[in-house]
Amino acid sequence: MDEHPEKSLNSRLHEYLLETAQTASEAMKPAVEAQKDLTKTVISLASATLVFTITFASSFIGPSIPLYWRYAVLACWLAFICSLVLAILSLYFSLELGTFPARVLIDNKRIDAAIDEIASRRPFDMKPLEDIMQSHLRALGKTQTTATRLHKAALVSFAIGLLIFTIIGIYRLLSL
Questions:
Q1: Cβ neighbours for 10, distance < 8 A, ≥ 6 positions apart
Q2: How far apart are the first and last CA of the chain?
Q3: What's the rounded Cα separation, in Å, for the pair 39 and 92?
Q4: From CA 170, how far away is CA 55, in angstroms rounded?
Q5: d(Cα 39, Cα 44) in Å, to the nearest integer?
Q6: Where exactly are the structural domains of the chain?
Q7: Which secondary-structure segment (H or E) carries 123?
């Protein structure tokens, strides 16, 4: 017979909470990883394109180029910079998602209070732990939504910069 049934219950409830957090985290992992990979690609491409266009700016915006084309190049650069900032922020929020199980378990005071409440009731009611998990899942959902929105905004900004750069390139080719 178990000498410390409360400790055993406490241990089992902590395991239940950890398993639930890991299950939720694992379910989101493929989508989060794909988003992070694409975001890293956008960061690489936007950085390279920005450096490339700034390095060779004199070859496609000379003194004979109308002022509106210069503004177009500036808009292109701003779009790439915006894309970089948004992609880095998206990556930051995506990385936060990987810490979900740990963030749930760090909530010791609430977890211990919930376990005490569960242990004091007969029959056992898991609602206090489920409430803790739901609050963390809501926070996780908000973080994921923020990361996804930033990711999409980074893609749109990159596409705008690329479109502007393409138009400038076509203009320069046709004016040769």
A1: 115, 119
A2: 90
A3: 10
A4: 19
A5: 9
A6: 5-170
A7: none
Give yes or no for a contact between 47 and 77, defined as CB atoms under 8 angstroms apart.
no
74-116 pLDDT, tens digit per residue, is: 999 999 999 999 999 999 998 877 787 778 778 778 887 887 8
Residue for token digits 């320069």?
A: 172
The amino acid at 142? K
* Cis before 30? omega within 30: no
Polymer length in residues for the chain: 176
One-letter amino acid of 170: I
Cα(96)–Cα(131) distance, rounded to whole angstroms?
A: 21
pTM of the predicted model, to two decimals? 0.78
5: pLDDT strictly greater than 70 = no
Longest Cα pair distance anywhere in the chain, in angstroms?
A: 91
How far is it, in rounded angstroms, from Cα 25 to Cα 30?
10
Provide the pLDDT for residue 82: 97
